[in-house]
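Service request form, structural biology core

Requester: graduate student, group of Dr. S.
Request type: structure prediction, single chain
Budget code: on file
Notes: please return the result as structure tokens.

Sequence provided:
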Amino acid sequence: MPVYRPADRLVLPPVDAEKYQTVCHYCIVGCGYHVYKWPEGRSGGLLPDQNALGVDFTKQVAPLSGNWIAPAHHSIITERDGRRYHIAIVPDKECVVNKGQHSARGGSLGSSLYRPDGPTHVRLTHPLVYRATEQVPTTWDDAIDLAARVIYGSIQRDGNNSIFMKIFDHGGGGGGFENNWAVGKFFFNAVQTINCSIHNRPAYNSEVHASRDMGVPELNYAYVDAELADTIVLWGANSYESHTNFYLVHMLPNIQGTTVNAKKDARPGEQVGPGRIIIIDPRRTATVVVSEQAAGKDRVLHLQLNPGTDIALANAIARVVYERQWHDKDFVANRVEAETVQPLLDQSLQISKSLDEVLAEAEKITGLSRTQIEQAASWIAETKSDGTRPRAIFLYEKGVIWGLKNYENIGSIVNLTLLTGNLGKPGTGCGRLGGHQEGYVRPGYPGPRPAPYVDDLLSQGQGNVFYVVGCNPAVTTLNAQRMRETLQTRGKLVRDALDANFAADNATKAQAILDAVKQGGLFIIVQDIYPTETAKHAHVVFPAAAWGESPITSINGERRLRLYEKFMDPPGIAEPDWKILGMLAQRIKALAQADGNADIAQRFSGFEWKTAEEVFLEGGQSFADGVKASVERYKGVDYAFLKAAGNNGIQTPVTIVNGKPQGRVRFFENGEPFYTESGKAKMLPTPWPGFPAIVQEQINKYPYFMTNGRNNNWQTLYNDMNMPFFAERTPLPYIEISPEDAKKEGLQPGDIVRLFNDYGETMAYTVVSNSVKPGVIFMLFAHPRATTNSLTTPYVDPAVIIPYYKGSAVGLQRIGRLADLDARLTYKPTNFDFDKVV
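Core staff response, request fulfilled:
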């Protein structure tokens, strides 16, 4: 493994370099960037009037000024016509999201670009079809024809629901509004299957059904609210690493006290001061340590609860608030459906029991002290000395979304928000922090709620076609070992059929495939930018365009809609997802017409798009009007408007006022109705459910509770594994184990361990850290070389079919050491709390 050596000098963009606007394609924060492009062989000068940045490089650039181009900001690309260009991608100082800062992810955007002479040369460049025992490159017409014949034949013979799919539903690098509309139109309107699932989930669902059912769309706040709150509540989120610039640019200044004047302006007549932060996480994360070091421990409360006990904690905090009469009585009386209050008091707050009984039970379940629970309630809701109510913003993410009982997890946090009246005012809000950016616009899903558990059905032999786009279920789905076995065994029956018909034309091969799936086979189509683990099992692979290779639009966590301009060609003959699905639909339509099947031909009509903006505008017309608009509603906006709006864009939902698009900063201000029939919010009973039997069985059998999460790497490392800066820092996944447990197991930092339970096994190297309590192990998730999801159970919340990714139990075995890792890695704790590890 080579050691990454960044360049020690770079050329500057000349003053006449092409300039594009874009947004980082990684996390939901959505930082703004400028892209400079100029021909190889040219360079700008050192003086301000000689380079596009307008910076005097004859002098030392000030630290943290943003006035430079780092090696990871830069690349040299080769266009389809063979011409080569420099690309430099630098943060936009005028963008209100990041204000010129970048995260580790955004700061490496240049390195993520395709270049045939660099690490990203492994991108998919041509369609692949399984022939002669391997995947071989072919033309678009050939690959599209085979896939179309199988899909069309399967629908004809076995019905719409014989087609299964697992596809992204988000924005940013994952697709944007353009590709999402194409996906929805193809599978919901044309194929009309109910057997759909979303990239990280085994069914077609929302990760926040509870919040929506309660009338609270999940992206209801603005980033500025984190600057204006008295208390920030981070629940199941490590924002320093996962939402870096939301934390650094908007949260951290608040708890450091530098936003007090902004609070005075936004909240006149109220007592304000430096903010405080409550971090609810079973790990002592980098966010906890950085917050304590930057703002002082007196402004930070870390509730290091036992994994999976969030519902019990939220209910206990709410009970203290209610018992102390700190709840917002006017808000509850006027903005909440009255009939939903008593069930909350009875089932969640357990008002039939004394406070002492409730808190004693909560202490036992959560592992937290009564003092900690009461302190959290006080910081959130205790009336200030001037008689005004504190303002709190509740921000949650995968720790609860993928936690025990997704529906009640989310509902319990929204309950606490409603009880304390923390919606509809500056400095308040309750919503998810998000993973990817958002870009959801689709026709209505034709299936039921809860939707079919697609992973389970596939493992049972159901489904003829499995179409996977922009995700990697062989690594990331729950019980991933089962998924890999399904793809391998069922896919082999189709490979055997193709091998037996190697000399046949596509029509004959398609029939052979249909015969094979009748015997339990599975025809697998993968559409992606890299040859993923899932793609290795595919019979047809479509190469897709990535970020920067086709224009897209998305919204970030505060619903800021921007245009991500195209600035380079896709590799080889790769195409945008919307175009691939358009070609496939048109071919299916032609097959149906040739058969005289007018119904299917009509269903697959209307896919003749020529540009990305056509798809964007068509999707926009699907949004309904009215105050209770879809969070993503952008109807009335076009690319020209977004180009002019720059990297600050417009916050959705958009309303057209006097012919001009108008955005919305936050929801529920000035009596704006909640998203229910009554216009009032609903409270939700969320009693503590205990662990499901399938999970409890593993807890009883194995010594360590295993949770998981991200670090500065992104998701499945689909880009990172081809970017030396990241790949060399995390060549394998790691576990974090407490010093006490490491001593008990005889482990040293860097030891390779095997983790196992009744569902699978995986490997990792060891980091000894105080980030976890004894009895708990944390593992980096979704690493392609060894995935934690091989150890997750198949349990899902039955109400919404959301997996419990964060909960399993494992055994551990030391394997040994890898000398090459010892030479290159430090094995230091990732939370920076080095002096606490013995």
